[in-house]
Design a protein that fits this description.
Shape: globular
Number of domains: 2
CATH architecture of the largest domain: Sandwich
Distance between the termini: 28 Å
Structural class: alpha+beta
Order of helices and strands: EHHEEHEHEEEEEEEHEEEEEEE
CATH topology of the largest domain: Tumour Suppressor Smad4
CATH superfamily of the largest domain: Probable inorganic polyphosphate/atp-NAD kinase, domain 2
Helix content: 10-25%
Strand content: 25-35%
Strand order of the largest sheet: 2-1-3-4-18-5
CATH class of the largest domain: Mainly Beta
Number of helices: 5
Number of strands: 18
Radius of gyration: 21 Å
Length: 286
């Protein structure tokens, strides 16, 4: 007898549940909010919950054993045949840090409001994609990832990292090294992205957009300090994923943000950050 497949449903908590249902929320302790805003949050919550219930119902109809888990917790992806994220890109990216060679499928729970570049499914096509997965007909795309190496940290990222001062109003100081060329820079920070992350902050900062399956690194300093006798040479560009890229902190209170604002690490003076290819591309079901 065939064993039932197992799926993890990794979902975000809605803003409504955080603001109005959590007993520790400031809104529960007397903070006022406009009634129209309250109704908007409630409508978003209801749409998200409907998507979450629909995803769970469809998986069970295909005889999956399911487990729900809210964002903010780590998990062992090897325990599951499929990881399904329900939310937007932030939920998808957070789940991806727990995954090596396992399959992931992103479901945009509210396409009218939520950004979901990594989410190839919504409740309209979810059943079709799951059926294709079971019969080996769905496409699987491999998105190259990059690995961050610090003295006491090793982690991968799918989208981008931001290296900057911990205070957004303060100058970011660092030395960037590409292969054997180094340059000291002062700026508002530096974005480093994969091809999959090229359509986000890197593009907004003047970078180029690439198909997410390309094996490359793109870097883009933010707002380079202009009052400099010698012009900057390393002002942004596209590198092969095999090229050496290193950033050395010249900040007492530097920080590195990984795939958004939820994961960050201190990046203090003299610490070297190395970027290298991660051995497991992310296998995305579509």
């Amino acid at each position: 007898m065939k064993m039932a497949k197992k799926a993890l449903i990794f979902y975000k908590k809605s803003a409504f549940s955080i603001y109005f249902q959590d007993p520790e929320s400031s809104f529960r302790k007397g903070k006022k909010i406009d009634s129209s805003e309250f109704l908007k949050f409630k409508s978003m919550h209801e749409t998200h919950q409907q998507s979450l219930l629909c995803v769970e119902r469809i998986l069970k109809s295909f005889h999956f054993k399911t487990k729900r888990m809210a964002r903010g917790r780590s998990f062992h992806a090897s325990d599951y045949d499929l990881v399904v994220t329900v939310g937007g890109d932030g939920t998808f990216l957070e789940a991806s840090h727990n995954i090596q060679s396992q399959l992931i499928l992103g479901v945009n729970s509210d396409p009218s409001r939520s950004v979901g570049r990594f989410c190839s499914a919504d409740i309209k096509n979810f059943a079709q994609i799951v059926e294709g997965f079971l019969y080996g007909k769905s496409k699987v795309f491999e998105y190259p990832r990059l690995e961050v190496v610090l003295p006491h940290v090793r982690t991968c990222f799918l989208n981008d990292i931001l290296v900057c001062h911990s205070n957004p109003a303060a100058m970011s100081r660092y030395v960037i090294t590409i292969d054997h060329q180094s340059e000291e820079q002062k700026s508002s920070g530096i974005w480093i992205s994969t091809a999959a992350g090229s359509s986000g902050a890197n593009q907004s900062a003047g970078g180029r957009r690439f198909p997410p399956t390309r094996r490359l690194i793109q870097y883009r300093p933010r707002e380079l300090y202009a009052n400099k006798a010698t012009p900057y040479r390393l002002k942004g560009g596209v590198l092969s994923i095999e090229q050496d890229l290193m950033v050395t902190s010249m900040m007492r209170e530097g920080v590195m943000f990984v795939d958004g604002s939820h994961m960050s690490f201190s990046f203090e003076y003299g610490v070297q950050l190395k970027i290298k290819p991660f051995k497991y591309p992310l296998r995305v079901l579509s």
